[in-house]
């Protein structure tokens, strides 16, 4: 059985590889997405990726995911720290969400230390650069395997 995963990228992540390279590195969003799709194929995960700088579009994607995907990997970007609308959208769906951040938000500026979205996710992975996304996929693979074992 194929596991469907939606990877959501929030604001400014389309600028990866160009923006603040000392913080985010040179890896582009396209590179990250291609790597996730390839890794997903290897692990039996069907990965679809979506990026938006618009909060409402991300909310729409979360709503559309219910009944269509099994897991969501979500980097809300700066919305992490203040978007109660995204927090409520995550809480309103019956799809496990893993929050990811390329940088360690807890070691950066104080305004980044709080995530309003993390309390309604099943977990948070931070600080490993682009690898944060792959670690989330690895967690999904493990969770999906456990779910199948429990059903069988």
Automatic annotation (TrEMBL):
It catalyses: 3-dehydroquinate = 3-dehydroshikimate + H2O. InterPro entries: DHquinase_II, DHquinase_II_CS, DHquinase_II_sf. It is an enzyme of class 4 (lyase). The active site is at 24 (proton acceptor), 101 (proton donor). Keywords: Amino-acid biosynthesis, Aromatic amino acid biosynthesis, Lyase. Gene3D superfamilies: Dehydroquinase, class II. The record marks 19 as: Transition state stabilizer. Pfam families: DHquinase_II. GO terms for molecular function: 3-dehydroquinate dehydratase activity. Coiled coil: none annotated. Its EC number is 4.2.1.10. One of its GO terms (biological process) is amino acid biosynthetic process. Pathway: Metabolic intermediate biosynthesis; chorismate biosynthesis; chorismate from D-erythrose 4-phosphate and phosphoenolpyruvate: step 3/7. Belongs to the type-II 3-dehydroquinase family. Catalyzes a trans-dehydration via an enolate intermediate. This is 3-dehydroquinate dehydratase. It comes from Laceyella tengchongensis. The gene is aroQ.
